[in-house]
Write a structure and sequence with these properties.
alpha+beta; Beta-galactosidase, Chain A, domain 5; eight-stranded antiparallel sheet; five-stranded antiparallel sheet; about 15% strand
Length: about 600
């Protein structure tokens, strides 16, 4: 090994010394997520219940659908190979799992063909290291799960590809490293998780490099896992699923590979509560609270997440799966490329939903949110409230914004994020610049104007501000640090069985300052009268529902602005979405107080 790699190994060994001893004895393949009898046991569990059998049948059908397709080619999208890496996981893991469940050699042969193809790529795009991490995971699955189907030449090909394209520099000796290994965001979890799986798969071939990678993952994962504090996650539900799937991968690998089981990782603040995170941010519509960059836009429908099953199994919280994960599983939904892991972690859930789940809660941490609801039924009210800072990883200028579900309709929505590849290729927007004057904030969906919050004299929120949330019901959002044009800005959310009230109090404004209240909605918008405006939606049975927004004082003039057409060439269209808003002007005392009540109008019938 090179001097650089030897120093790295020594440093990482020292960093882990307090956390435990050496690696566990090398286990035979398979050693990723299962032991010698793991697949047989998983098959027996799946076949023991109707939903398990259905999930197994779906996985085999998905593997069948891959068989007639051509093998993967190296396809870049912008600066990323990520789509190919993810498809490699989907195909290799899905086919390998199908082979283990059926013994049908067609699946193994096709998985090997896919693994050979990606192992022969000239590289896995190390300039965007997420691509490398995910491809490493794909090839690690092939090298481990297909061990008894691989000949010696294929074992060598896959192991060398993992070594030279991922774990080490092309010289095969110098450990690859970068900011990703110690990042505070999802890159840490994804990259350390993917490479840890690769290292475990090739431990017998490259023991020193493999041990260095595993020790580095154990030492550095807590840097990003600290973001799980208070049961929250600062990057939002979309990135929670991504980061947490790879956290689950890393934790499972490290627990098996270290003799002491790496216990300090499982004791980190907030980790055991992650089984509740997706439940907290999912409304009764089945849509989640899509703050930050959510991977989906106005209608972000929740799907199964493999990590939920891992956390529930690891922390003995199976009941937490009953409310959303098990119904989604029963409805035929899979967890995408991580479906085989979800099936390995699957356990029948007979218990009722968590009886102790709170109706209203604030999830603090570095980017706090709140979730309020009147109950867990399909027609109950739900409010997701955003605190925190635009400077958070993948953050938006969305402090004080909210989503609202009631009677099966999402009435207040968030627009979501922009396409990374599209914006990056424009070269005119600094998408990853988070400074106050960065052109990132000129994107409508990311800046203050694109969110359901307050805007003072058209100014953006302060990048370095952070909105604090307190209380359970009501929840108070202190937005003061987000606004330079006011001394104090407080937004109070109170939810009852009858509806929602949002009250805003601003002090220290300049006389004549214009404060705009706004909200995005995909509902139809009716006319406004006497300070009220109607939103019209449809219940699950197709009957019309009318949500009345009533402002106080009642002399406000509501405006309706269609967001369907993009505002600039850099912005995306938002078909079917409108903005409802009004403005108030500060008097000589620099103080404004106003509120909006959300109630159903039982007399109104459809748009007027």
């Amino acid at each position: 090994m090179s001097k650089r790699a030897i120093v790295t190994v020594a440093a990482l060994a020292s960093a882990c010394a307090l956390a435990g001893g050496g690696l566990a004895p090398l286990a035979p393949h398979p050693r990723l997520f299962v032991g010698a009898d793991g697949f047989a046991a998983a098959k027996a569990r799946l076949e023991s219940s109707a939903e398990g059998r259905a999930g197994l049948d779906r996985a085999i059908s998905e593997a069948d659908a891959v068989l007639p397709k051509p093998v993967l080619m190296r396809q870049m999208e912008g600066r990323r190979l990520l789509g190919t890496s993810r498809e490699a996981i989907s195909r290799i893991a899905g086919l390998s799992f199908a082979w283990k469940m059926t013994g049908d050699r067609r699946y193994a042969d096709r998985a090997i063909a896919e693994a050979r193809a990606v192992a022969s790529f000239p590289d896995w795009n190390p300039s965007h290291f997420l691509d490398v991490a995910e491809m490493t995971f794909a090839v690690a699955i092939a090298r481990d799960w297909l061990d008894d189907a691989l000949d010696d030449s294929d074992k060598k090909l896959l192991a060398e590809a993992i070594l030279r394209k991922a774990l080490a520099e092309p010289d095969g000796k110098t450990l690859r490293d970068g900011r990703w290994s110690r990042a505070r965001n999802n890159w840490n979890q994804v990259c350390n998780g993917g490479l840890a799986a690769g290292a475990a798969a090739v431990r017998e071939d490259y023991p020193e490099i493999a041990e260095a990678v595993l020790r580095r993952a154990r030492a550095n994962l807590p840097i990003s896992m600290k973001q799980y504090a208070c049961g929250n996650f600062p990057e939002g539900p979309g990135y929670w699923a991504y980061a947490s799937d790879y956290t689950a991968i890393a934790l499972d690998v490290l627990e098996r590979q270290f003799a002491d089981g790496a216990p300090e990782l499982f004791a980190l603040d907030g980790l055991a509560d992650q089984v509740d995170y997706m439940n907290a941010v999912t409304g009764p519509t089945g849509l989640f609270f899509n703050y930050s960059d959510p991977f989906s836009n106005v209608a972000p429908r929740r799907g199964p997440v493999a990590a939920c099953w891992y956390f529930a199994l690891r922390f003995n919280r199976a009941a937490a799966l009953a409310r959303y994960e098990m119904p989604l599983f029963r409805s035929g939904k899979g967890a995408g490329r991580m479906t085989p892991l979800m099936l390995l972690w699957f356990r029948p859930v007979d218990a009722g939903a968590d009886a102790g789940a709170p109706l209203c809660r604030v999830l603090n941490g570095s980017n706090p949110i709140a979730a309020m609801r009147t109950g867990f039924g399909a027609n109950d009210w739900y409010v997701g409230i955003k605190g925190g800072s635009p400077s958070a990883s993948h953050g938006h200028m969305d402090g004080g914004s909210f989503v609202l579900d009631a009677r099966g309709v999402r009435w207040a929505c968030d627009l979501g994020c922009e396409s990374y590849n599209r914006i990056e290729q424009m070269k005119t927007i600094s998408l990853w610049g988070f400074g106050q004057k960065s052109s990132r904030w000129s994107l409508f969906r990311l800046g203050t104007e694109g969110h359901g919050t307050l805007m003072i004299d058209g100014e953006q929120q302060n990048v370095d501000g952070c909105a604090a949330l307190s209380g359970e019901n009501p929840v108070v959002a202190d937005l003061s640090s987000l606004y330079s044009s006011a001394k104090a800005v407080r937004r109070t959310f109170e939810l009852t069985e009858d509806g929602l009230s949002v009250r805003d109090e601003l002090d220290g404004l300049k006389p004549g300052a214009k404060v705009t209240w706004s909200m995005n909605t995909a509902a139809n918008v009716g006319t406004s009268v006497c300070g009220s405006i109607d939103l019209v939606g449809k219940s699950s049975d197709g009957s019309p529902l009318v949500m009345k927004l009533t402002a106080s004082p009642g002399d406000v003039k509501w405006e309706v602005v269609s967001l369907a057409e993009p505002r600039t060439p850099a912005d995306s269209p938002n078909p079917g979405v409108s903005r409802v808003r009004f403005s108030r002007v500060a008097g000589s005392d620099g103080r404004l107080v106003f509120s909006v009540a959300f109630r159903f109008d039982s007399k109104a019938q459809g748009p007027r």
